[in-house]
Design a protein that fits this description.
mainly alpha; 3 helices; 52% helix
Length: 125
């Protein structure tokens, strides 16, 4: 804020300080409830209140069904692990890394090493 109503800077500064003090005092006044100020909601878009559907809520029966499904899946996983049908990612990666140096050597021998020179296109005059 700035003010040039008075001839000296100190007077302008004092006036602005007093103005700020009165504005703060009015803002903190508990007696004014703004009941006489009309509210204008033309600029406000109301948000729809969404409600959670009753069919989506977990019931005791549904909780028991989910627990049974999880237990069944865990048992199937345990059976696959015991029978050796479960793919173990770490073992697969280690196997590929053991074979990879041999594959890289084959590729290095087959590919010629050297720098090919790029040709410029001919200019049409």
């Amino acid at each position: 804020m700035s003010c040039e109503m008075f001839p000296t800077q100190a007077q302008n500064k004092r006036y602005l300080g007093d103005l700020i003090d009165t504005l703060i005092a009015e803002a903190q006044d508990p007696t004014d409830t703004f009941a006489d100020v009309p509210l204008d909601f033309r600029h406000h878009k109301w948000k729809r209140k969404l409600e959670f559907p009753e069919g989506w809520k977990l019931t005791e029966g549904r909780k028991k069904q989910l627990e049974a499904d999880r237990a069944k899946r865990a048992e199937a996983e345990r059976e696959r692990l015991e029978s050796g049908r479960l793919v173990h990612g770490v073992r697969v990666i280690e196997e590929v890394l053991r074979v990879a140096p041999v594959v890289q050597e084959r590729v290095a021998v087959a590919a010629p090493v050297g720098k090919a020179k790029a040709k410029r296109p001919k200019r049409l005059v």
